[in-house]
């Protein structure tokens, strides 16, 4: 009770800082070399993507078609929740959790489904929602996998596409940002499961991961 009362009296920025303390007790913001996309920039871009989806699917929904947004856990959790609220149409929200095999640093493109959809997508319009496209292999696999279930259509919404050499060709209909090939974290993106709760996307200091 005392903690809640004390937090209420702190400015917003300070409350954010208190809630993002890492295990060593230092603020995680200190591990970021610079912000790439601020909280406001992300909110603005997500609103634009939501408006674009609303415009694109309005006539389909009007004739009775259904939309299923498929969030890819765990990185897309924040983006999914904000994007879905920016779409002014009825949508069903479901989730998949996948992991890709690789050598630890790079993805091999072999993806294992850890949690599958709970709903059927046959005859429905699917929008896959991802946080980041790096090699593109995860989304390529997922797209093919979901296509085999015979949806009416599939499109991809990704918050960030990294400029990654040799990236698998992939049409991302709803793209938030084209990012440099840096180690980025925040707004769902992690390093060793940390930093997902940063409200912005920032570049991680190299000394944190080297
Ligand atoms: C990240 C991200 C994508 C994938 C993109 O997931 O969320 O799913 O990597 O990489 P790719 O384009 O090279 O295939 P990760 O395996 O880190 O899991 P997470 O979503 O739990 O962070």
CATH topology of the domain at 42-177: Rossmann fold
Helix proportion: 25-40%
CA(first)-CA(last) distance: 41 Å
Tell me which ligands are bound. 1-O-pyrophosphono-5-O-phosphono-alpha-D-ribofuranose
| SSE succession | HHEHEHEEEHEEEEH
Helical element count? Answer: 6
Give the averaged pLDDT, no decimals. Answer: 88
- Uncertain runs are 1-10, 12-25
Strand content bin: 25-35%
List the strand order in the largest sheet: 4-3-2-5-6-7
CATH architecture of the domain at 42-177: 3-Layer(aba) Sandwich
Secondary-structure-based class equals alpha/beta
Radius of gyration: 18 Å
CATH classification class of the domain at 42-177: Alpha Beta
Q: Tell me the overall shape.
A: globular
Major β-sheet profile: 6 strands, mixed
User: How many strand elements?
Assistant: 9
What do you see in this structure?
By secondary structure, the protein is an alpha/beta fold. It has a domain at 42-177: Rossmann fold (3-Layer(aba) Sandwich). Helices cover 30% and strands 30% of the residues. It contains six helices and nine strands, in the order ααβαβαβββαββββα. The chain has helices spanning 2-8, 12-19, 39-62, 77-86, 137-147, 206-209, and strands spanning 32-37, 67-73, 92-102, 107-115, 125-133, 153-162, 174-179, 184-185, 201-204. The strands form two sheets. The protein has a six-stranded mixed sheet with strand order 4-3-2-5-6-7, sandwiched between helices. Strands 1-9-8 form a three-stranded antiparallel sheet. Helix 3 (39-62) crosses helix 4 (77-86). The relative contact order is 0.17. Mean pLDDT is 88; it is low at 1-10 and 12-25. The protein binds 1-O-pyrophosphono-5-O-phosphono-alpha-D-ribofuranose (PRP). 1-O-pyrophosphono-5-O-phosphono-alpha-D-ribofuranose binds at residues 72, 74-75, 99-100, 107, 130-138, 190.
